[in-house]
Design goal:
Elements (H helix, E strand, L loop, with lengths): L3 H14 L2 H5 L8 E3 L10 E3 L16 H6 L21 E2 H16 L3 H17 E2 L3 H33 L6 H22 L4 H20 L33 H12 L6 H8 L7 H14 L4 E9 H9 L4 E4 L5 E7 L3 E5 L4 E2 L7 E2 L7 E4 H8 E2 L2 E9 L2
Helix pairs in contact: 1-6, 4-5, 4-6, 5-6, 6-7, 7-8, 9-10, 9-11
């Protein structure tokens, strides 16, 4: 048997690509669809046969499905004894669950994502007490929910792109930006309600960026938008000291840094795990460390990817002011994570412990290297390679 999920998701993409008029012109009618005006010279109605309805003839009479077909406001299914497939008094049957799944499919075809979300919540309640469910019914329920969640995530991503574009456009209208922001917050709230656990890291990043843009909107004068100021909130980066590593404790700063950034996005491994499987040579260069990060980021479906770069010093400072963390490589071979810059000092996570800020200097492993401040001149002296910094940078996954 072919897997069900790719087929259903493929259909969802196909439906999403159809013109809006196709989706809203009675997609659930088993009878021919009447379109007035067969031609410019004839008042005879044209007809289009609709043969892909997800509902049976009996189901078209059920309240909720009938509402979609008639164009009325959607009504959540509440089975009653005279409806096809309804449960005995007080119960929910497999037929009710199947009908809810078809309703979700129908709402998605019609482009009514809010109605689909409401029906998912109804379906979840039905699943708690439904009797006579087959494994296929459970699979269908799971696929239907995932279809809706994928659409919600898509709305958030497209809305975020729209808002970013508006924020950078001097001619953009403040009211339009506020409307986009409100719509985004609506979908973010829905995603958190549907599946906050799976999308925790994604939601955290989106919410942080939204707060930044909201602050810019509040601070702008009149109705002329301004681009957000570069003060993005920092990610919460876990700290791994290399002195605690069982493997290569005196030369595993690179694996500690990769592990810190992976753990930021939900990875549960340790530096020792990386050392055991990859040794210490893989992550000793920016490109190698980026490749190692991306290996696990792809497997864990993280929202970011890494790249090895030679970053100009001025760009290095600017990006850190904007809250973009980097893994950096000193001229002596030590590796650390830099998380911010205030114009005078850098915020660092140093797996070797506290550095004495001399070149090359020493590190005290008895003092935690988490959330330290290293002076601008001192750190750049050990990072600067002809005006560039060897670094691993992070950006949204493509």
């Amino acid at each position: 048997m072919m897997p069900r999920t790719p087929i259903v998701l493929g259909l969802l993409v196909l439906f999403a690509a159809l013109p809006l008029t196709t989706l809203t012109a009675g997609p659930f009618d088993d009878e021919p669809l009447t379109i007035s005006g067969g031609s410019s010279n004839d008042d005879t109605p044209a007809t289009v046969e609709v043969s892909d309805s997800p509902f049976t003839e009996d189901e078209l009479n059920i309240r909720g499905i009938e509402d979609i077909n008639s164009g009325n406001a959607p009504t959540p299914i509440q089975p009653t004894p005279n409806q096809p497939g309804s449960a005995p008094a007080g119960g929910v049957t497999a037929k009710d669950v199947q009908t809810s799944v078809k309703l979700i499919e129908g709402y998605l075809q019609a482009g009514d994502l809010d109605a689909a979300v409401r029906q998912v919540k109804t379906l979840r309640e039905q699943m708690k007490t439904a009797t006579g469910l087959s494994q296929i019914d459970r699979w269908d329920q799971d696929v239907a929910e995932k279809q809706v969640i994928v659409q919600v995530v898509s709305r958030i991503i497209s809305g975020m792109a729209k808002l970013e574009s508006q924020a950078r456009d001097p001619a953009a209208n403040k009211a339009a930006m506020t409307a986009t922001l409100t719509d985004l917050q609506h979908w973010i709230t829905i995603l958190a309600d549907l599946d906050a656990k799976t999308y925790a890291s994604f939601l955290k990043i989106i919410k942080a960026r939204l707060e930044q843009i909201k602050a810019a909107l509040q601070n702008q004068g009149g109705t002329t938008p301004v681009a957000p100021t570069p003060t993005a909130p920092k990610l919460e980066i876990p700290y791994f000291p290399q002195s605690k590593n069982a493997l290569y404790s005196n030369r595993s700063s690179q694996n500690c840094c990769v592990a810190m950034m992976l753990a930021t996005f939900g990875w549960k491994g340790t530096p020792d795990y990386l050392s055991e499987w990859w040794g210490t040579g893989q992550a000793q260069s920016p490109n190698g460390a980026a490749e190692l990060f991306n290996n696990y980021a792809s497997k864990e479906k993280m929202p970011v990817r890494a790249a090895g770069e030679a970053v100009k010093v001025a760009d290095f400072e600017s990006r850190l002011k904007n809250g973009e963390p980097m893994i950096v490589f000193t001229t002596s071979g030590h590796v650390l994570v830099v998380t911010g810059f205030d114009g005078k000092a850098f915020d660092v996570m140093d797996p070797g412990g506290q550095w004495d800020q001399k070149n090359p200097g020493t590190r005290d492993s008895k003092v935690s290297g988490a959330h330290l401040k290293y002076g601008r001149d001192a750190l750049e002296a050990v990072l600067n390679r002809n005006g560039e910094v060897s670094a691993v940078t992070f950006d949204k996954a493509r």
